[in-house]
Amino acid sequence: MTISLIVVVVIVTALLFDFTNGFHDTANAMATSIATGALKPRVAVLIAGVLNLVGAFLSVEVAKTISSGLVDEAKISPIVIFAGLVGAIMWNLLTWLLGLPSSSSHALFGGLIGATMVAAGTGAVHFGVLLTKVVLPAVISPVLAGVVALIATYVAYRATAKSDQGTVSRGFKIGQIVSASMVALAHGTNDAQKTMGVITLTLITAGVLSPDAGPPFWVILSAGLAIALGTYIGGWRIIQTLGKRVSDIQTPQGFAAETASTAVILASSHLGFSLSTTQVATGAIFGAGAGKRLASVQWGVAGQMAIAWIVTLPAAAVVGAVAAWAASTGTVGTVVVAVVGVAVAAGIYAASRRRPVTADTVNDVPSAEPAPVAA
Amino acid sequence: MGIAWGSLGIVVIVSLAVGIVLVALVSFALVGLSARTAPAEGATLGPGAGTAVAAVCLLAAVAIVAYGLYLIVA
To answer: Rounded to whole angstroms, how far apart are CA atoms A262 and A310?
Structure first.
């Protein structure tokens, strides 16, 4: 059994993507728990990391496709997967630098679409599926989560208004720990699967695995560990945005937001809709903010996120396309793509050090930051 | 390209129902628990009844969460 170099490169790149996926999405489960003080920042990311790892092993439904039918998978080569992953990683890192919660799934889809268009032509991309599987859920799911969280927040405040506030606050904090854990677990079952699917299909393409094989144990373990490690490292910049910059979230709101996220994610994944955990969680946090007092939500931040969401797929597609074009010229091209990718990633890391956000500073909203425009 | 409007409708209804009911249950449980420690002025909910309400509401909430966990695992 020999594994060619490109297969090894794809596996390593897929695990790197998985890692960025993890630290990009820590915020989905834990941002409001950290903001309200229900969990200490480091404890929160530890719980989220462990539950992501557990989630990776729990799900029995293996991702059978890389792209959910978005592109003609018969025309996908390891080069295309590699280029698509590079596009997705680059976009994940850039949005992390900006502290914007964007969808890792959309980044992956975008990267693959761009790479496929260059390698196999526009005909290999199924644009109808793009509309029904990506665009439609992206529009509906955050709004739905937002509405659920808004009503739930209103109910929570109305019901407990005349009760002992100490008891209420403690109770919702415990509730938040449970609901945040559910989001983290659901995230592990969904997102770790994507990377397992990519690696497994790459191995099948390379003839290492038989066509109907499930992911080997080492693939499940490494994908689970990569996403768990990424989650534990914690995308503090995005946690800060979701926890503090959207609205001043209190425990009833945090609990309502996380419960709404869990309900929407589980209901839709049970009925076969793939959706972005990030967008659901973000929509829920806005809803929870609005449920208490409409004016307390920073709608300017919502505008920034909306732009990032719209741009995610095309931007990752452009990077994926360029990477596919360069990598398809041969081994030298592939090496160049890898080196440039590492260099850009290092540059983004360096840029992030100018204003680092850590577990200790995540709840301090920078006061020097100008108010978002178009509020 | 077919959009499964039926399933989409179910997702909307189930999400709304479960999300709101669960938060309401926990809220009511906390109202019940509050009656144990600091009964509101003029309230007719005694500590015993409050505890009972809290227990029933939390039990229902735990059942929903357990079903959610079952959905994740299965």
So the answer is: 24
Tell me whether 0.95 is exceeded by the ipTM: no
Q: Does the beta-carbon distance from A155 to B23 stay under 8 Å? A: yes
Comparison of pLDDT for A95 and B3, the residue scoring more? A95
Q: Which residue of B has its CA nearest to A144?
A: B12
Q: Mean of the pLDDT values across residues A268-294? A: 84
Nearest-CA distance from B50 to chain A in Å?
11
Query: Closest residue of B to A159, CA-based?
Result: B27
- What does the pLDDT read at residue A207? 79
- Are A259 and A152 spatial neighbours (Cβ–Cβ below 8 Å)? yes
Quick count: other Cβ atoms within 10 Å of Cβ A84? 37
| Interface residue of A259, A269, A271 to substitute, partner B, most B CBs within 10 Å | A259
Q: Where are the domains of chain B?
A: 5-73
Taking the CA of residue A207 and the nearest CA in chain B, the distance in Å comes to 30
Three-state secondary structure along A293-317?
Answer: CHHHCCHHHHHHHHHHHHHHHHHHH
- Is the predicted pLDDT of residue A367 greater than 50, yes or no? no
- Residue A125: helix, strand or coil by DSSP? strand
CB A183 within 8 A of CB A265: yes
Mutation target vs A (from B3, B7, B62, B72; most A CBs, 10 A cutoff): B72
* Cross-strand partners of A125: A71
Size of interface A-B (CB pairs under 8 A): 127
Phi/psi zone of residue A126: left (φ > 0), alpha (ψ -120 to 50 degrees), beta?
A: beta
Residue A188 is predicted with a pLDDT of 83
pLDDT tens digits, one per residue of A245-271: 888 888 999 999 999 999 998 888 777
What tens digit of pLDDT does each residue of A157-200 get?
A: 988 888 888 888 889 999 999 999 999 988 888 788 888 888 88
- Tens digit of each residue's pLDDT (9 = 90 or more) over B8-46: 888 899 999 999 999 999 999 998 888 877 665 666 677
Residue among A33, A358, A364, A14 nearest A184 (CA): A33
